[in-house]
User: Fold these one by one.
Assistant:
Number 1:
Amino acid sequence: NIEGMIDFASLLSATPTLLAQHDDVKLADSWFSAALSKSPDDSRVLSMYGVFLAANHALTDEDKAETLHRRAVTNAGACAGALGRYAEFLEMTQSDVEGAGEMFRRCHEADALNLLGLLGLAAMYMRSGRPDVAQTLYRQAVQAHPDDANAQGALGSFLFNVHHDREEAGELLRRAVTLDPAHASNLGNFALFLSEGSAAEQAEAGDYYRRAIAEDPRSLRALGRLAVFQERIAGDPKAAEATYRRAIQLARDDTAASPASSQHTLASKTGANSAPDAYLATLLANYSALVAGVKLDPLRAGELLRQAVEVDPTNAIVLSMQADYMEHVAHDNEAAEERYHRAASLAPDNPDILGAYAAFLAHTRGDLETAEDYYCRAIELDRRHADNLGGYAVLLMSLCRRGGDVAPLIQRADECFRIACEEAPGNAAHAANYAVFLANVRCELNEAALLFETALSTDVSNVETLLNMAHFLETCLQDDDAAELIFQRALAASNDKDARVLGSYALFRSRVHEDSIDDNRILYQRAIQADPTNAPNLAAFALYLSKVLAQYDEADALFRKAIQHAPRDADILGSYGAFVAEVQHDNDAAEVYYTRAIEADPENATNLGKFAYFLHAVRGDHHMANLHYQRAVQCGNNADILGNYANFLETERDDHALAETFYKQAVAVEPRHAFNLASYARLLAYSHGDNETADIYFRRAVAADLGDSAILDFYIDFLYSIRETEQRSNEYFKGAINEFPQCAPLLQSYGEYLDEVLGDAVEAARYFKLASEIVTL
């Protein structure tokens, strides 16, 4: 009975408990040999024996297996099953994807309902970017084989991984493991599905992972996934480390025994290991993340990643993980970019890798255009990928700051944030970034505050969320006390070691507690000690040393270090250009750095505005200044730039009408900008003769910054200039005194007006006395 012989041989070879016993492996081999001798041209016998020889860990003989498979499919009566099994051999053992595709097509043509042909062809279409055709074939497989665990599991995994349809995918995967409780691959896939679900589903996941491994103790895929689950979801790093070590040892053993490794067929109930070098590389890389993040051993983590890349230098995921290590741990951005680029080239259809490279380009390199291209490619591949959508939305926020027609960008960012939060409701970072968007772009402060609270309720110690909320409280709500409390919580959550938090808090304290010079200096130093390569922190400390402590040599050294670590950071280059111009008075060098800053980011409004002012005030090149001012105001609504351009148009171009247009824009952008308010008031008074409106704007300017003596002098000069010609001058003086009763210069000026213009010496003396008392106090 040929059928009985090969069925019994297959049973022996496919049962893990028997497979572990060498005698039963030899017995299976003898049964296959006996069946082949009795029926040497039977395509099923030939192909099943080929499967056994390729897949069996103890007796792997790929050359003989291939010979048998070829004989099976060249027979005139080659069955669809033989064609399908040869296709699997070519794909999984020989890595001949093209040849496998051809065999799967022949299998499907021979029998349109053959399960191997349907599932294999579906996988081929999936890899070629045709998920619509793949889904049709997967559904045909389920319809034709409604009680087959392979069919149910394949469609369930497809819907989960590609369509993110948790409801139907969950039903199919649960049915698959019910139909065949010993199917290791389906058990592992169902465990992965559960691990990404609710807390109740995650509680089930660990059990299904253990069941998958019990059915196939050598499944590297299941062991690797269990380790990740234990580390990141179950919160058991000790168990995760033990699982990683076990899996890595198995992978090393498999690699030593057979470089091409064993691979079970779809028809097998055990899970599948693809080439162990690929799995070994992935296991080493994932283990390195645990070593770095939990065991806090970055050197060991780096060595594990080096081994992973050495084992499989074409593994795009491993290269991407090493790039992340180079960026965030080793702080070697050149090496990081090289790894990211290689990974993206090797896996151009992997949305995770493309998104990671996009994030690096945006945040580390500041190359927003290239980053946007990679984000768009990643999102085109997976339109519900929360991390990529959230990252792209943040990038769109940066592009909005450049000005122009930002409405489409804002709409797109809003949509991306919304979908990211829907897809990952437990992700505090996405919720916090969306809150930042609502606050700074939409100006919806109440909604932003609620979203920040939601983010913190999801993860009370998320450093990124705490940092964003602190900035929100400081800049949007202007609640410095609340902001400081959140900054301190962020420091505690990061164990006072996060360079970004330390640097941000130093900036905050240098503004709020400007008299605490020593404490602020120490905070900046701690930020740099935490990450000596953090260019923004180096530049911020340089500015502090320059503007507060007048330690110009130290500031220059820090600026140069910042530029060394971020040679294309437009903000740092522009700040150093201003430092060189204003402190070192080296105008030629300043122009070089301004030019480098604009080349690094041609649409950076701040740098364009600074350079325009430099060309205007220092170089006296009004033509080039005007061109750069025009570019600056087109790239962003910056109140300083708008005000400076208005002043330039008024004083150098004598274009009062256009100057007034830009003064109005500047005041609209920042209604409490004292200098712009005063400048506009002066234009109204001295160019338009509109003393009434000028008085209103002068008062707003003084109220915006009571400590700015220059603004106050402008107002007093205005009142003095109209005291003999303006009939309502006394009314203006009284209005100013009523609004600023403790302003000694105003009281003194009013006293002079009373004495010299109205001749009221008694009342004048009273105001002189009030002014004198305030000065004394």
Note: The two ends are 114 Å apart (CA to CA).
Number 2:
Amino acid sequence: ICSDKTGTLTTGKMTVVKVWTCGEADETIAASILRIPSAIQKLLAEAIVVNTSFKSDVEWDPVSGNVMKYTGNDTECAMLCLSNKLLAAQGFKSGNPYKDVRQTYPLDDLNRHAISFSSDRKRMSTLIVPQGSNSFRLYTKGASEIVLGLCKWMIDRNGLVVELTEEWKSHIIEEIGKFSDEGLRTLSIAYRDFDQLPNMDEEEKVENDLIMIGLLGLEDPVRPEVPEAIRVCKRAGIVVRMVTGDNPRTAAAIAKKCGILSDNDDSATIMTGSDFREKVLDEHDEINMEEFDKVWVDLRVLARSSPLDKLTLVTGIQQSKASTPQVVAVTGDGTNDAPALKKADVGFAMGITGTQVAQNAADIIVLDDNFASIVQAVKWGRCVYDNICKFLQFQLTVNLTACAIAVAGASILTKSPLNVIQLLWVNMIMDSFASLALATEDPRPNLLNRKPYPRTQPLLSPYMLRSLLCHATWQLIILCIFIFGVGDVCPNSHDLNYCGNATIYHDNIGAIKSGRPAAFDSQYLSSAENCVPVEERVGKAADYCKQEVEEDSKPNQHNAMIFTVFVLMQLFNQINARKIHGEWNAFTGILDNKFFLSVMGLEFAMQLLMVEIPGVNTAVGCTGMTFGQWVLCIFIGATELPMHLLVSRVPLRWLPKRFTSSYGSGEGDGIPLLNMK
């Protein structure tokens, strides 16, 4: 996940907590207001207000005086709050003093000119004619070290403009470092006076020889839930990379608070956008994959970056052959982020601060702009994947068993033990009810305890194949016993379900009469009573063939038990299908999914009604069973549960190698592939 910092990892509620001006900084804003000369306070406040967008606004509680809401850019809103405090100290009485300054220098003022902010320049400037003056004044704000490099003068401790010596530059750079180490975002404020209107198209010339007013330290607290979300990501095999416009020291401090960086990480994990471009792009601005592969694996923080750097990072990781193919997610809120959002495998646009262009380019919109919500999206994604696998595991088991029984029936018995209506009901269990039951599982916390799957990994895992083959084999064994080992052969009986006192030619398990086709059971009869062609029936049992053919088409308890056992084994195996990673306890979390239990109950109730209700059971091809037969069918169906315990102990190495060859283990970006036990 390549994540922005402001508003995603942090709260986005910027606050100016430190000001360096007139040669020194104070611990609090209140102390700075007491120290800074009145004229410099007014200059700093005016520089802030004039050089902020009119779309940025602050709502105050008229009673308590506390900030209620930021509208627009959070950084500018925080600076407007500081300007209010400075202007209030100068005697401004209105509730929002900065609005008085805006009225003095309105947006449609003919003397007002602006050089807008860009991610490349990392600064913006506004030219005005100060009140009561005939000269022009340019106010500039931007990245601290960039604006500092454009300054030639500064305001000293006495409030006088003096030359910005190398000694003072070193002192200011040291202050920037101190602010950054505290996790504060730093901005420099500067100005320049002109006797006549400069050519605003010559940006580099105009924004030069500036006078340094001061340095602002803005705090954007890390969201309280983010450090835990980052720990969850690491446990889930997800690497979080922070892409920010802040300077490296500020970015590193925030990254450590979030848990992206540890105290033991070296400088290789942090790069600036300029260094990154210099290393990974060739002279044609194409990615040099050999150099890129040396950088991206360890990279965790990309500071002073542009949207183009984010796009380069995403594209390079996707194309890299240095490790397992990566799935890349990226967050963005600005219009310039749209290419990276579009390029990423998963693009997350911010719902609150995101532009319409960014939201249109993204796959998912994060409504609360919170990184923890992105982790929730990962968890739900894994849940959907697992639910599909659960359904697939169950459906293939039913399909394998049903197909084997149908083929065996057609080959050996001359017809399938399950008729068309019964197979239609089995198909409903497989497709409709199973999808409702297995696809409605909510995500569980342990979904984020495992590493991600590579995109090339087959959908059927070795665990699923083991479960599928073993359970299908067990079901076939039980059904073959019921089909061929149950049901006495007694052709002279007129009772469809019991032989009674009739001669039993083949004594099978139990006391019910065979429901198998007469053509199959005739092998157990003597030659005098066997079914023979009409022209050969002289002296034979003439009524036998007619009687048995009629009985073949009539419902009987033997076939009803075969059908019921088959269905109940699928119902109990539906519980087993909830586990696809080799877990031995199939009941974990089952009570949390009331919908699953309801569907299971509905399936059993419908099976009961189809077998027992007269008329309905005739259409299905069944007849009512005794209480003892129902108990037996339920007991045999329930053997799927202990069978699951045995299946979970079957070594995966017993599976054919062609089924498991793509499930090896490898290393890539510290993310091992799915390992087999």
Note: Residues 544-550, 665-677 have pLDDT under 50 and may be disordered.
Number 3:
Amino acid sequence: QGQEKYKSCTNETGDDLIMDVEALHVALQHSFSADANLRDPAEKTIKSLKYVKGSTTMLLQVAAEKQVQYEVRQQAAIQLKNICRECWVERVSFTGAPLPPLDGGSTENGEPKKAPLLDEEDKGLIRNNLVEALLAEPEKSIRDLMAETIHSIAIHDFPDKWPNLLPTLLSTISQSSDSSQALRVHNALLALRKICKRYEYKSRDQRGPLNEIVVQSFPLLLPLAQRLIDPNEHSLEAALMLKQILKIFWSSTQFYLPGGSTTTANNDDGTLSSTTGPSPALANPEVMQPWFDVLKAVLSKTLPEASTGQEPRNQPTSVEERNAWPWWKVKKWSVQIMSRLFSRYGIPSYAEDEVKEFARHFSVNVAPQFLGPVCETLNLRPSGQFCTDRVVHLCLTFVDLAVELAPTYKLLKPHMDFLLYKVCFPTMCLTAEDIEQFENDPHEFVHKQNSPLADFYDPRMSAITLVTDLVKHRGKDVTQPLLSFLTEIIQRYGSSEDATKNHVEKDGALLAFGSLSDLLLSKKKYSSELEGLMVSSVFPDFNSPVGFLRCRACWMVQRFSTVTWSDDGSNLRNLIQLVLQRLSDPALPVQIEASKALRFLIEVDGAETTLLPVLPQILNEYFRIMNEIGNDEFVAA
């Protein structure tokens, strides 16, 4: 019966389409069918739903009904999100012209079909019922879809057309002391974060609603966060709530310290004007201290292995599952907020005039507080414990900021050996997973090594940045001991028997030397030693049986192509020949680095004598490699 009903609803004109919940449920169910005779008309019906009055309310009913098959509920939530996103307000181009429906189509006259819009009755029903459906939803993917729908509606309707949204969420959050309300409280926090995200990137004068959200919600969120960081609180529910609270804090503070309440006044001409009160944090920086205490407590929380049986229990064992574990997610958000606050307020001389007083307070009183938990977190891996890459990356980013600030560097200085040789250097070295990828999935290895996003998530990149900034800002304390450490590794490798050579350690040392190339080439006392380093420690690696060392040798050429050669030119000719040979290396990453290295050698005086006779062969190799893989640097080469 339901099938017959939805078959009659496949017309897309939108004038007189009707459907009931039963027919909708059947259509959604049949959209998963392997039988094309059932699936095709079902998909056509679903595509037409945006033309059916009341379809959004029925979709919400199906999505919210716990007795319905999970996949059907999920499909209903997806369709609801898509219709609300497309049909809530008229979609226009940047010129203001109306846009056609996302699925295209035209009328019988051949004109572009006009995108449908939900009427006010349908909108009102969704606004009234969507929040309650979300608050009661236990399934993560469905509640995430519902929260995203709230976000897309709030863009247009909050706060003016949806005045009860914030009070409903805050009323639910206020029940956090009742453990039976934990799910509803978490889901209210999820929705609140979506509303805050709406204003996250707005300019200061467009953040009025966000300031009002902060004024009303933070007095509820802070006591809840303080309860959740209790040393005896270990539940995953607590971690999930904390994560949402910290994400709300992030959205509210990452660009500006939130202002006070917004007041509205009547102007002489009859218009209304609104003004936002000064930020409480700027008036009294101490008011932020309880939040800073929450951040410190989160990052300091011990997360034992599952095998110990200690709380919080059941930490996963695979890296992928650990990365997604709520307690590690919470740590990630805490140190991400710390790093953002430091980057904005840690160096008072860089801060805007209106926040200089807060920045002075932060640099002297707050940043040093954060440094302890950050360094304790960085000690996890050296002491044999687990820490996610993202948390390591963000902690190193924080320490990098701390290097430039005198009060924090004073605290760091006694621990410089630990930071350089126990944290940064091991982080710069290739992991077993990197080597396995180099050998078995070279395309992915090349992609990962050349990813422009690496600066934002790869702890190796943040370790390199920290080492170079230490040499730049604190060179008197750091440079000579660091170079001695790296030289010792290189010499130990050269004097060891083949069976005992530590290839990974040498690769890390060459990476560190290459990362410091600007400094080493610019100072005579260092540049005079570079020819010897290249000839004795890099040239032999072009023929190493270890693929990643051949790759590193090609990379070193890119960093030190301007080295002054003191001989009759034979070293340069030898180097060019070594690089040319690597163009046909059996390992793809080596071929890529060799092709990039030649780009730098072409610029060197005397190189053309060696390169011109073999230019056709070089180009053939380049085009062969380009057919297999290409990136911007390779194309430039």
Note: The radius of gyration is 30 Å.
